[in-house]
Amino acid sequence: MLGKYVDLTREKQPLIHNITNYVTVNDVANIILACGASPIMADEVDEVKAITAICNGLNINIGTLNHRTIESMMIAGNEARRLNHVVLLDPVGAGASSLRTRTAKHILEEIEPDVVRGNISEIKALANQSGKARGVDADVGDAVSASNLDQSIAFLKAFSAETGSIVVATGAIDLVCSADEAFVIYNGRAEMSRITGTGCQLSGMMTAFVSAAPKAERLYAAAAAVCTMGAAGEIAYAHLAPYEGNATYCRRIIDAVDHMDSKTLDQEAKYERQ
Amino acid sequence: MLGKYVDLTREKQPLIHNITNYVTVNDVANIILACGASPIMADEVDEVKAITAICNGLNINIGTLNHRTIESMMIAGNEARRLNHVVLLDPVGAGASSLRTRTAKHILEEIEPDVVRGNISEIKALANQSGKARGVDADVGDAVSASNLDQSIAFLKAFSAETGSIVVATGAIDLVCSADEAFVIYNGRAEMSRITGTGCQLSGMMTAFVSAAPKAERLYAAAAAVCTMGAAGEIAYAHLAPYEGNATYCRRIIDAVDHMDSKTLDQEAKYERQ
Amino acid sequence: MLGKYVDLTREKQPLIHNITNYVTVNDVANIILACGASPIMADEVDEVKAITAICNGLNINIGTLNHRTIESMMIAGNEARRLNHVVLLDPVGAGASSLRTRTAKHILEEIEPDVVRGNISEIKALANQSGKARGVDADVGDAVSASNLDQSIAFLKAFSAETGSIVVATGAIDLVCSADEAFVIYNGRAEMSRITGTGCQLSGMMTAFVSAAPKAERLYAAAAAVCTMGAAGEIAYAHLAPYEGNATYCRRIIDAVDHMDSKTLDQEAKYERQ
Predict the structure, then answer these.
(1) A21, A96, A246 member nearest C34 (Cβ)
(2) Which H or E element spans position A49?
(3) Tally of helices (H runs) and strands (E runs) in chain C
(4) Are the C-beta atoms of residues A82 and A89 closer than 8 Å to each other?
(5) Which residues of B touch A25 (CB under 8 A)?
(6) Are A56 and A226 within 8 A, CB to CB?
(7) Angle at CA C134, nearest 5°, toward C133 and C135?
């Protein structure tokens, strides 16, 4: 059922404007290409409005924000909203500094992104909960697990109701929530957390999936992107030689996305709906 | 005949100053090393003049331009000109925003780069033709093909005559033109367009090849760089496992450049002269 | 004996704040993860104090410095000092421009980093010696060799005594020096110099190793990081297929760090103490 969003993205080839961090930007560009979309990166105040206008979706990632790029995020975000383009916010490191928390909240309130994707600590920081980021990683105490699953889903659904955004919290268990629906996704491998930027990559690909989908199906498209990333992580891991590690694993995950099709995703996707 | 420029670059080991985008900069640095040259990246207004002065060539790429780096491009470009260093302009995304088009034209007019390398839509945007960029990709309607080849060559030769630059338009068919000569190059694979930054990489390597060549042979050195990139793309593709995709392919192309020698290039280069 | 610092880093999982260049930043993040630590990159003046405060160590790399990031380096450096966090300075390109030389000296004097790691030309530039950088590479005339080994060690010990920093000069032979002790390290391969950023990667990993070690053992932890990088380079090289080159080699070195353990390092480390 989610596989169709893989095909749809390849068919529609959405053009995605990314204002993103310089740490993982190359991988973000390659995974957007791998899923059949096209990336463009632009963060200068004087051109972001024009760039966003020719695109289909906007991916805002605050990973290495500065005052110049924050201004660009706001300008591009407002223009994307005006044009009814999809906007995704990845609040990298929200909770780690007040600048990040403040900026992410400001984008959330003023731009009202269609999707917010982060780790659970970042989402909690946005929701004024006890989210204690460990830098750009989620705090162990915040982790979604079998024992707090119902409570976590209730929190994310409530946050979705409050903000109007699809809310995606990824980790060992991934949750993709609207105000009244939730996907609980079990794809992926723990080793993915030893690669920098799997979250950033997922946000870029998710912007593409959601931009390619009909408006009423955005929740499913977001869930399909999460399953694609996780399934790619599983497929890629199976191809690793014993001496290969996190750097090669990163390449192979993008490779697996490059080969992903609807049939494979429908076979590999592991999720429940609540 | 073009293979000698591979050897020459390895022998001369030119030092290349790059003011380039943060998306593909790591691959640009690695391919410059792979072809036997040395890269240095520096974009601060207060040091670009000094950095360019110790280098042999300057690669200006506007892929993630901002007002600070635009000023640096002009300062470095003027200093490189004054010192008779090779200057290459890669007008990434010209046509996608007026800032990019304007900046690329300003560099073209004030710095008079020795080489301009872009996709055909970017070149058309510089020439005030109907170039309609699709973000950083060429528009399908602009593509150079068998049916419009003569017309495309005539356009690029005229643009070279007007600007004094060697003009290189890469795509399925690559064209390397001076005012009165053209190389039509058939190396490369369609899958290369699914990797971010093959164009940026080529521009970096081309700056190295042209910087290492005698002034009268710059057109041939530029053509040799295009053939090297394309042949590396073919060699790399042959080494891909069935499950490998665009991310690994990117690495393998740089690897193939690392192994390129004059004999291999002379065997693999596929071009006509017009 | 040095292997224990591999285990200690994996056990302590230090969080490392990096203000570093955009060329090699992704590899720096992945190698910090590979050695068991966690990276965070942040360079905005308004947040670097907060980010450094939640971290265990600070890695300052001037590879693509600009006035905004120089200010951030000073703020973060002073805060890290105040909190007794480990600070490492990588003076990329010191000697190549007066801005770089001046900035690196200013950081050295005002922040008094615990460790300075560069190539021998960069260290000489900081010490007002005849260091003649060739861009970001050491000058051949400066190279540490068997014939000038005693003299090089004496110079670095004296510079360590003068600055109070552990001084690390890497190249074909690596030297890790305090005022009265020196490790002369023979791990690594010449092919590593054809990869962009092996020095930057080492600096990031070294910040993690030193941050995880007891204060009295920082010299050993720094030496362990050098041996880990060199041994990883040897292990990775053994896994390269004949057609693989510098781009794949870069991935495989990080992979080998990901697999490094104390036993392997104790077997593979090749050094003398003087």
Answers:
(1) A246
(2) helix A48-54
(3) 11, 9
(4) no
(5) 22-23
(6) no
(7) 95
Q: C-alpha angle A148/A150/A154, rounded to 5°?
A: 115
Name the β-bridge partners of B116: B89, B167
**Can you say whether residue C221 is alpha, beta or left, with left for phi > 0 and alpha for psi between -120 and 50 degrees?**
alpha
The one-letter amino acid at C221:
A
Reduced to 3 states (helix: H, G, I; strand: E, B; else coil), residue A146 is helix
Distance CA A192, CA A240 (A): 13
Contact state of C195 with B30 under an 8 Å Cβ cutoff: yes
pLDDT digits (tens, 9 = 90+) for A240-272: 999 999 999 999 999 999 999 999 999 999 999
ipTM of this complex: 0.96
- Three-class secondary structure of residue C134 per DSSP: strand
In this predicted model, what pLDDT tens digit does every residue of A160-216 receive, in sequence order? Answer: 999 999 999 999 999 999 999 999 999 999 999 999 999 999 999 999 999 999 999
B134 annotated ligand binder = no
- Side by side, which strands form the sheet with A38-41? A38-41, A15-19, A57-61, A86-90, A115-118, A166-169, A174-177, A182-185, A271-273
Helices (H), chain B: 4-12, 25-34, 48-54, 67-82, 98-111, 120-126, 149-163, 198-212, 218-238, 246-258, 262-268
Q: Which residues of A touch B241 (CB under 8 A)?
A: 239
How many Cα atoms sit within 13 Å of B227 on the Cβ side?
29
- The β-bridge relationship of strands C182-185 and C174-177 is antiparallel
**Token pair recorded at residue C229:** 């990088």
Burial class (CB in 10 A: 0-12, 13-18, 19+), C33: buried
- Best probe of the B interface among A49, A54, A56, A79, by most B CBs < 10 A, is A54
Give yes or no for a contact between B175 and B38, defined as CB atoms under 8 angstroms apart.
no
Rounded-to-integer distance, Cα B194 and Cα B186, Å: 18
Reported confidence tier of residue B136, pLDDT bands at 50, 70, 90: confident
Cβ–Cβ under 8 Å, residues A258 and A31? no
Chain C nearest CA to B180, separation (Å): 37
C177 has which bridge partners?
C167, C182
Cα C193 to Cα B33: distance, rounded to the nearest angstrom: 9
Q: In this structure, is the dihedral angle defined by the CA atoms of residues C16, C17, C21 and C23, taken in order, positive or negative? A: positive
Q: Give dist(CA B29, CA B129) in Å, integer.
A: 33
Q: Which amino acid is at C189?
A: R
Among C20, C28, C32, C40, most A C-beta atoms within 10 A, so best to mutate, is C40
User: What domains can be seen in chain A, in order of their start residue?
Assistant: 4-273 (3.40.1190.20)
Using alpha carbons, list the distances in angstroms from residue B134 to A261, B128, B155.
25, 16, 21
pTM of the model: 0.97
* Distance separating the N- and C-terminal Cα atoms of chain B: 16
Rounded to whole angstroms, how far apart are CA atoms B210 and B221?
5
Question: Measured in whole angstroms, how far is the alpha carbon of residue C177 from the centre of its chain?
Answer: 13
Q: Which of B26, B38, B251 comes nearest C248 by C-beta?
A: B251
Tokens of C156: 């670095």
Using an 8 Å CB-CB cutoff, list chain C residues near B55: 135
Which letter does DSSP use for residue A46 in this model?
Answer: T
Closest chain B residue to C252, measured at CA: B251
Instruction: Indicate whether B132 pLDDT > 80.
Output: no
Contact by Cβ (8 Å): C200, C63? yes
Residues of chain B positioned with their CB less than 8 A from the CB of A239: 241, 243
